[in-house]
Amino acid sequence: MVIHLTALHYVYLAFIVFIMALLIKRRDTTMICVAGIFVLGWLATETLSGSVSGIFNSFIYATKELMGTIMIISIIVAMSRVLIRTGINETMVAPLTRFIRTPAVAFWGIGLIMLVTSLFFWPSPAVALIGAVLLPVAARVGLPALGAAIAMNLFGHGIALSGDYIIQGAPKLTADAAGLHVSQVMEASVPLVIVMGLVTTVTAYWMMRRDMKNGTWRDGLVTGSGGAGTLTGEGGGAEESAAPLTARVRVWLAVIIPVLFLIDVAAMFVLKLQGGDATALVGGTAVLILNAVTLLSHRNQGLEKVTSYLIDGFTFGFKVFGPVIPIAAFFYLGDAAFTDLFGKVLPESSNGIVNDLGAALAHVVPLNGAVGAVTLTITGAITGLDGSGFSGISLAGSIAQLFAAATHADAATLTALGQVAAIWVGGGTLIPWALIPAAAICGVSPFELARRNLKPVLIGLAVTTAVAIFLV
């Protein structure tokens, strides 16, 4: 099938290059994204009113898409603040301090716990489950909040999500598109996921330790407090100290609260809840815990304090997401959002601007195994730029099938490579709004987290592609 690229495709690509260049230079990209939305709207509607309205409508679209994440982060932060003020969090994490005694143990420990949890329940609910508990421990032993965010992000949204061996959402999509059985893609992805994971996490850890030693480390905190500053609620609407709880009550609550989340974990497994449903279960449980602990600690003022804690949480959530929404609005235009906002102005055969660009790339390169591997990596990375990681992996499967048929290369390995590249880029390690859960829980800038991840992920993709060339 011939891919017809229009001016919309080229303008979108030009803005992507500009935005990525600004991110690398650590400059803000909000104004450029707004300009990109305006220009695309102008080309699509050919009217000033349509392009101007498109800016606002794209913000609304992005907010709707991100609202679930905004809500869970806000609620978890609200709950965590009352737990910290009452001393329950201190009691809860005390046993872990016996095992996590150095920054290195904290980094790798948080990462491995995140990996295991994410394999069963996907990364966003996993971040909510473990972030608030482990972050204070990590901060206490000297691991920066940004370091904890890197660990949770790379192990969860990177390694666990790119393999997706338990839930199998990603390999199912790519396998279907490539005409393969899902087990073939999963088996082929194992060495690629291992190589990508090892190279990326080791590189990220080495760079973190090097920069901390040289004094060039940037914490990237959203607030000026320490590692767990975003969860302490300093200066928030619920400033008054909670009534002291007895040691016995604190211990009981420190046991009951993790048990409630473990019940959530069991329920996710038994009821096969994943994605938004799993996040909703964690969020609902957090709201109930917030209400119960606030009533116990504030007694007669409990009814009012519940609202104060929620206001604190939502204030933090929208403060973090404020700069992300304009950028997400631009990149969502690369997928279905464009047609939703500006109508059917793309060619009839179009599968969205981003997917069209990826397919066009596959049609202009020479066909052989090595070029096929490189092309699948680049195609996967490009389709991941919309921030979902999943929207373009079917395209990766289709292109892998094309290269395998033409060159007799291993279709399963090429398919797995495209899947790994798409999810590492778009699933939550490079695109700022996709890695919001880990950044928000740790109280760091998602843009700084994306910058810290950039070199390790690019190095990992290069090494993984080289390994795949020998496997195809």
DSSP strand tally: 0
Helix-strand sequence: HHHHHHHHHHHHHHHHHHHHH
User: How far apart are the termini?
Assistant: 25 Å
Q: Uncertain spans, ≥5 residues at pLDDT below 50?
A: 224-239
Measured as a percent range, the helix fraction is over 70%
What's the total helix number?
21
What structural category do the secondary elements indicate?
Answer: mainly alpha
Topology readout:
Layout: H1 7-24, H2 30-45, H3 48-85, H4 88-93, H5 103-121, H6 123-140, H7 145-163, H8 169-178, H9 182-214, H10 229-232, H11 247-271, H12 276-298, H13 302-321, H14 324-332, H15 337-342, H16 353-364, H17 369-383, H18 393-407, H19 411-429, H20 436-442, H21 446-471
Helix pairs in contact: 1-2, 1-16, 2-3, 2-14, 3-12, 3-13, 3-14, 3-20, 5-6, 5-7, 6-7, 6-12, 6-20, 7-9, 7-19, 7-20, 7-21, 8-9, 8-18, 8-19, 9-19, 9-21, 11-12, 12-13, 16-17, 17-18, 17-19, 17-21, 18-19, 19-21
Write up this protein.
This protein has a domain at 66-168 and 197-321. With 472 residues, it is mainly α. The radius of gyration is 23 Å and the shape is globular. The longest helix has 38 residues, at 48-85. It contains 21 helices and no strands. Mean pLDDT is 82; it is low at 224-239. The chain starts with 6 loop residues before the first helix and ends with a helix. Helix 5 (103-121) packs antiparallel against helix 6 and helix 16 packs antiparallel against helix 17. Keywords: Membrane, Transmembrane, Transmembrane helix. The chain crosses the membrane at residues 6-24, 31-60, 66-84, 104-121, 127-143, 150-168, 188-208, 251-272, 278-297, 309-333, 353-378, 390-409, 421-442, 454-471. This is Transporter.
